[in-house]
Amino acid sequence: MFEAAYGMENTPFSRDVPTDKLYDSPMMQEILGRLKYAAERQMFAVLTGDCGTGKTTTIRRFVDRLDKGKFQVLYLSDLKLTPRHFYKGLLEQLGSEAKFYRGDAKRQLQREIELMRGIRGIQPVVVVDEAHLLDKENSGACHSPIFVED
Ligand SMILES: Nc1ncnc2c1ncn2[C@@H]1O[C@H](COP(=O)(O)OP(=O)(O)O)[C@@H](O)[C@H]1O
Ligand SMILES: [Mg+2]
User: What pTM does this model have?
Assistant: First the structure.
């Protein structure tokens, strides 16, 4: 309704704004450049900002533009992410059923990532959205991901 009143073609602030239709600010370009830098070097990056400032949206755009022949994105956004769920969530996205015990699942994930890198020549990019909700134990479980925090 208000869209027509303001002459808008689409509804603003929806979660599924196509990433090529986003407002392209210099800040967003800077963030995208830094995320690319971190992904290419398999570094650890933290993206922080107030609620609703576009962190998840920027990540969405980053993921859409990432070279799928070089990188595989593993995305987690879980309020109560235990270490076991962290490994399970990543393994599921890699098409593997996680072993029950946390230590086994961790080794299983390491093996999957070695295979991904060694055989398929693909680097993992782990995105943990809503990462401010992680507890201490969990943060330790996450290696070389991109964290998104409010
Ligand atoms: N660059 C942008 N251009 C247009 N709309 C945007 C942009 N960034 C964010 N938004 C809008 O703002 C809303 C909130 O952004 P979101 O990424 O969910 O914020 P955060 O993750 O920081 O809480 C999104 O649903 C989207 O509709
Ligand atoms: Mg968000």
Answer: 0.88
